[in-house]
Amino acid sequence: MTDYASYPSLAGTPVVISGGASGIGESLVRNFAAQGAKVGFVDIAVEAGDKLVAELTAAGQTAQFTSCDVTDIAGYQAAIAGFAEAHGDALVLINNAAHDQRHEWSEVTPDYWDERMAVNLKHSFFATQAVAPGMIRAGRGSIINTGSISWMIMSPKIPIYETAKAAAHGLTRSMARELGKSGIRVNSLVPGWVMTERQITHWLDATGEAQIDANQALAGRVYPDDVARMALFLAAEDSKMISAQQFIVDGGWAHT
Questions:
Q1: What is the architecture of the domain spanning 8-241?
Q2: 95: part of which helix (H) or strand (E)?
Q3: Of 74, 80, 78, nearest to 20 (Cα)?
Q4: Identified catalytic residue from 4, 7, 112, 161
Q5: CA–CA separation, 200 and 206 (whole Å)
Q6: pTM, whole model, 2 decimals?
Q7: 161 is catalytic
Q8: pLDDT digits (tens, 9 = 90+) for 57-106
């Protein structure tokens, strides 16, 4: 028994998720698998990916993992093709993979810029390119680009990450226009400060806790499942006339 929604249109639906072995991505994989979707996901974390697939398979759910670095575009597109062979053409794509590695703007080199943009933005376009033909044939589909409130609140020490995440919504808007007449909707899902294991381990301290309390309108913390539940809605046919929008899940953070 659950207090949360189930979406009949997701049952049996082929879904592709990048960065699905941990954090928000893991929650996405779990939530879509629990809805009866056929989930294919990629990640560089082989042990975690294999463990998650084993757990979901044992629970009678459908998930397939391919070890893949999303900056290897040819390899990533091949992985997407492999998921299509196993599950059918993807009708949902969630461009989730990213990395908020801290950096000093004054020390950024052209190579570092390119590498960070590849991790945080480039793969989203080429994954869209890979799944779009199948969605066009089906006459429907949902593509979800994961953004971040970091650029909206001007978080320090991550200017390239913020640039990529701001650009993700530009990608959403442009591809919503390109693909909309084929029945494909494209939206941005924008998390706030989400309590993933990485965030708790690396960045959350007493100062961070105080910052959350001061800036969130809602008490409590945002967790990966809170983000995943919005993704379920955007992927399901319940949102079939919603496109080119961004949906912020941040506890009502004060944006200046």
A1: 3-Layer(aba) Sandwich (3.40)
A2: strand 92-95
A3: 80
A4: 161
A5: 11
A6: 0.97
A7: yes
A8: 999 999 999 999 999 999 999 999 999 999 999 999 999 999 999 999 99
